[in-house]
Amino acid sequence: MPAFQAMISVAAPSRRLQPAPLAVHPPGGLFRNGAVCASFANRRAGVERGLVLRSPEKKKKKKMGVGGVDRRTWAVCGFGYWVQGFRCFPWLALNFHLAHGLGLGPSALQLVQGAAILPMVAKPLYGLFSDSSSAGAARRLPYSLGLLLQMVSWGSLALAPTEELAAKMGFILVGSVGAALTEVVGDAIVAELSRESETGSLHSCSFMALAAGAMLGNLSGGIALAKTRRPDLVFLAFTALLAAQLALALTANLGRGGRAGCEPAAVAGALRDERLRAAVAWIACAVGTVPLLPGPVFCFQTKSLKLDPTVIGLSKVVGQVMVLSLTLAYRCGLKAVPLRKLVFWVQVAYAASLLSDLALVKQLNLRVGISNEAYVLCASAMAEAVAQFRVLPFSVLLARLCPPGCEGELFALFGSALCSATIVGGALGLGLAAAVGAAGGEPAGLGAAISLQFVAALLPLFSVCRLPTLPPRKRY
Hints:
The chain is mainly alpha-helical. It has 20 helices and no strands. Helix 6 packs antiparallel against helix 7. 44% of the residues are buried. Residues 1-62 have low confidence and may be disordered.
């Protein structure tokens, strides 16, 4: 018998089974002259003797989290969405610093807020870089780079001694570029992983993480400002949180498992889909045709009504609680509602919620015995909550229509369209406020501006019939 073949000994029934001797193989290789590899010979010997052999290098199953996704990957994505929502924590302090520290008026404050989201318009460039790279580390690179840029931005706002608006605006733009990078990668990963999970489950969970972060950020931001009156300490605290997010991101693989990147032809083919174009065009028009008045409303609440920062922060918290409730309702049953019907009623709710600010301006709440603080906590947050929620059904629809490998690019285009529409809405709001005399937050002009805002929010209802209709996807 050749020396490299396994020697199989048959033990007597009354004797204790002994393991077969290890097989060896010739120096020339594992397979020679038709011989069986030693590992296969050992396994064969164990099978013939009735032994159960278990490999010492048995692979452990990955711990699965939401929707059957690896827990570590989902922890990075979920925490990233949470921090994304928590950005309102430093932004609340920044708004108060710009309005009261630097003395910016409502129009100038809204211009700064609109300019801050300009880097978000360039999201397709970041998405193209994410999708065109096949290596897993390529996605970690823009994600980590985005976090570093945000750390530089908020750290500079806290430590830089200058009070010049131009310098602070530069820091804000750097932070917006970093936020856009991380958002693109996060949206692409969630869209990619949602193909292996129940329809809308990961998107709804990401929205809930986003709302939870915003809820805690507004609450803690208002309390921190009321206690310390030090925006720089708020900026430093958020910088430390970004450092923790970066450390967590470096422990997980954010790639696509070695799949090939997206080709430009695939993106062009996806954009030729009439259903996708109709959905993106509708939500972009619904956002861009409504004049936004955050600056005049903010100055009216803080200067005319003399509301405390804690009240403003708590009102945002209530708004995020509403977002959480709406998202849970969508996850539990609203996702089965046809898209056209769901979008119609959500837009109606958004238009109606805008009238809550009109009642505050007219002080109708005082006539029924409701204080300004209580009214802002309960009613003024409704419009912001519905405005955030109405994007969720379109995100789920886009994930269904997106071809594999192009998640980053298409979601970046979607985000860019929303950011562009927000900028257009902000510009319309500035023009409207100047036309009706509400640029300084005056109650008379602000009431007229909110009335026109309500009418503009009803206009998209006439084009809901253009939205695509898709049959519900089966669970698997």
